[in-house]
Amino acid sequence: MIGQFQAYINRYNLLAEGEKVVLALSGGIDSMVLADLLLKSKVEFVAAHCNFHLRGEESDGDEMFVREFARKNGIQCFAKHFETEKYAVKNGISVEMAARELRYAWFEELRLQLHFDKIAVAHHADDQAETFFINLLRGAGLRGLKGMLPQNGVIIRPLLWASREQIRQYAVENQITWREDHTNAESVYLRNKIRNQLLPVFDELQPEARQGLYKSLEHLASENELYRELLNEKLAQIVEQEGETQSFPTLNPQLSTLNFQLLFEWLRQFGFNPDQCRFIFEAMETGVGNKYYSPTHQLVIGRNELQLFEIKNVDEREIEIEVGEEGIDEPVPLRFSRFEKTDGFVIDKSPKIAQLDLDKLKFPLTLRHWRHGDRFHPLGMKGSKLLSDFFVDQKFTEQQKSSVWLLTSSAGDIVWVVGWRIDDRFKVTNATKNIFVCQMVG
Question: What residue numbers bound the domain in which 215 lies?
Answer without folding.
Answer: 2-224
